[in-house]
Amino acid sequence: MSTVEENPKAVAFxxxxxxxxxxxxxxxxxxxxxxxGEQFYNSFDLxxxxxxxxxxxxxxxxxxxxxxxxxxxxxxKYLTEDERTLVQAGYGDExxxxxxxxxxxxx
Length: 107
What we know:
mainly alpha, 5 helices, 57% helix
């Protein structure tokens, strides 16, 4: 049984998250995400389900790392631009509210 068959709710959740994000993102950002997605897709051996380059970190792992940092008390103003973009992609434009911050706190 495939992962999709085992987790239909998770798949539906991520598809909705992707759709919502793509409706809000600018054409320029959409192009950047498209390039990132192509690189990400090409970094995996789909037959084996493993990275083609063991040094490659997947997006989910990266997001989990940033989220754990925020949960542990890292102030969001210390996130890099890439980390902020990743969290925004995962949690939406007002992602910082999840951890009790305002947009002013990001400056």
